[in-house]
Design goal:
The protein has about 140 residues and is of the alpha+beta class. The protein has helices spanning about 1-15, 25-35, 85-95; strands at about 40-45, 50-55, 60-65, 75, 100-105, 110-115, 120-130, 135-140. About 20% of the residues are buried.
Length: about 140
């Protein structure tokens, strides 16, 4: 009887494991960029936890944009949306539990930070320049 109960508990645990949304692949990112009005995608690569694309806009200008691999949101500093300043990003990072922030760099419509997380691990953090939410936080040196 004990064996049956343990087996049932293990089966429930395995079937109750959380599922994670698959990240967008290169073809899906290219399709999102074209749907957003970019006329050409010249280069596309994973960098610092995000997709980075060199694109040509409808007006002919060429620039780099970042794409959130989980949600497909495009971060383009030329899209007219306001980008938060460094002071506001630092405030939001502190509220999210990051400490000892040693470097803050704006990368288009995102911010990159070197900081320590709640577990006192050194991490590379990528934050949205639009609303300050954390897009990615990975232990330093663990970027893909």
């Amino acid at each position: 009887m004990k064996t049956l109960m343990i087996a049932a508990a293990l089966a429930a645990t395995v079937t109750a494991a959380p599922t994670f949304a698959a990240e967008l692949g290169a073809a899906e990112v290219q399709a999102k960029l074209r749907a957003a009005g970019y006329t050409q995608v010249h280069e596309l690569e994973r960098d610092d936890g995000m997709w980075e694309a060199e694109v040509t806009r409808a007006d002919g200008s060429r620039d780099d944009v970042l794409i959130d691999p989980a949600k497909g949101e495009i971060f383009d500093s030329a899209n007219g949306r306001a980008v938060l300043d460094a002071g506001r990003i630092l405030d939001l990072a502190a509220k999210a539990g990051y400490t000892r922030i040693t470097e803050v760099d704006r990368d288009g419509a995102t911010w990159s930070l070197d900081a320590y997380n709640k577990n006192n691990q050194r991490v590379d953090v990528r934050m949205s320049g639009y609303d300050g939410r954390v897009l990615s936080s990975r232990r330093d040196g663990w970027w893909d």
